[in-house]
Amino acid sequence: MTPGPAPWAAVVVNHDAGDLLADCVRSLLADRSAGAPPDVVVVDNDSHDDSLATLAGACPEVAVIRPRANLGYARAANLGIAATRAPVVAVLNPDALLDEGSAARVLERFEADPRVAACGPRIRNPDGSTYPSARRIPTVADAVGHGIVGLFRPGNRFTRRYRELDADPAVARDVDWVSGAAVFLSRPALDAVGGWNERYFMYVEDVELCWRLRRAGWRVVYEPGAGVLHVQGVSTDRRPYRMIVEHHRSLLRFASQRWRGPRRALLPLAAAYLAVRATIAVVARAAGAGRGRPRVAG
Question: What is the pTM of this model?
Fold first, then answer.
């Protein structure tokens, strides 16, 4: 008997992730809680390590798309999604490990309400703490406060509001956006808004996608019944200063896209602020590199 179509698919965007890529794919294939394992597609953004060779040895049946260029996260995600057919497709970083049983819980959310477009699992750091992956789109005041004060005082009130740090991470809720490190997406919703925005090379593409989905009337939800262990920064830590610049460039692009009417007059100020913030972040990263301090994050 020919097996039926997979109930969900997964796209892993890889760039020099080493052995973690194979670990990620194995965790996806091991989750049969939705009735069958997913169709898995790996899109490789011009890796030069042994990650693809290791994957081929561990999971030779998994499809790999090799555009032989670094397309950026959004374009690679779209390329992988186009190669799948399941009604729900997850997009993940290669350093994300899916907890077994997560697929069933996420698919239940999509089945319970067809307006759900994006579902983010509970993401854990390697030390077991919960990463604040479900957030709101900040006000200008919270963005500035988080961007400056948050570099030195992570528990400040601006950051707490933006990252929703006072929300119970064990309780499901609707949110403005969920992290693209591991996100499950409805194909009809993606088709309705045109997929990921390929103008974003790295960073903020998840914020922008969820923003467009919600503007179009869809729901974005956080589901702690699904879980992911995320090792963070496997690829980006090799080029930390370029990543800081890309992050701030994407923030300005999103402000330019989001702000309309009189608010566009604030864009030159936003550009100046982001330039200063990027400089501070680079200096903070350089000062902390030798002492093992955590990298600057959004």
Answer: 0.92
